[in-house]
Amino acid sequence: MTGEKELAGQVALVAGATRGAGRAMAVELGRAGALVYVTGRTTRERTSEVGRPTETIEQTAELVSAAGGTGIAVPTDHLDTAQVKALTERIDREQGRLDVLVNSLWGGDRLIEFDTRLWDLDLENGLRMFRLGIDSHIITSHYALPLLIRRPGGLVVEITDGTATFNRRYRENLCFDLTKNAPHRIAFGLAAELREHGGTAVSLTPGFLRSEEMLDHFGVTEETWRDAVAQEPHFAIAESPALIARGLRALAADPDKARWSGQSLSSGQLAKEYGFTDTDGSRPDGFGYFEEVVFGGKDGSAADYR
């Protein structure tokens, strides 16, 4: 990406910016010159149910500022309507505008029981996924959108797992499947509602994401991630959080972004469209690899899709 501050003067809210894609997107918006409110439940004083105390919203805000933007950390439980209302009132009071809303709220990976039938699932865990991955998005948009629609050009990005096309394939857990398909319909519906206000809404997914949690799972670091390919061959297509972050930046800065409104997008798709790469200079197409090679039986390797 260029060193231009193409988002200078813009205000963003990245809801769920503690780690992973959310943190990377907040930092990249800051690198483009935006003022970014970063929210989440894990702070230096308190750890959320995710249980990763070393990743905090204060750290994210500091990274945003170090990248060239302004990061403001606001501890927020996005299932608490009073907290979300107070958050948006604060943004209104301090900035009087909101240009980009990113709903990157989740934190439910630990709840997933793959290859388990609905009647065998832990029901409380399944319902909690709905709360974490659907309700939180709806609550946040409800309170944030009146501020965003004050000016034309506002952007809402629903972060999910899997494109709408990819998610036609069952995700092997009914509650997870529903939770990760809902953001596509939220973006589709919001696109219709925002149209008269000059706003854009999309859903956006990374490919096989090398999040901090995924790296820990394989016992590797971002520098040594290729060592995990021996354990999981498909990890060869993995992408860093920077790829989706660069996609968000390009989308937010695109004066013609309304052409995407209502659509399901992926980091790999936006990399091709806008011409950026991952940190290693490659352009991984995770969904192309999985759909054509892994599930489609086409001869090829991850290297053919990077």
Automatic annotation (TrEMBL):
<dbReference type="InterPro" id="IPR002347">
    <property type="entry name" value="SDR_fam"/>
</dbReference>
<dbReference type="InterPro" id="IPR036291">
    <property type="entry name" value="NAD(P)-bd_dom_sf"/>
</dbReference>
<dbReference type="Pfam" id="PF00106">
    <property type="entry name" value="adh_short"/>
</dbReference>
<protein>
    <submittedName>
        <fullName>Putative oxidoreductase</fullName>
    </submittedName>
</protein>
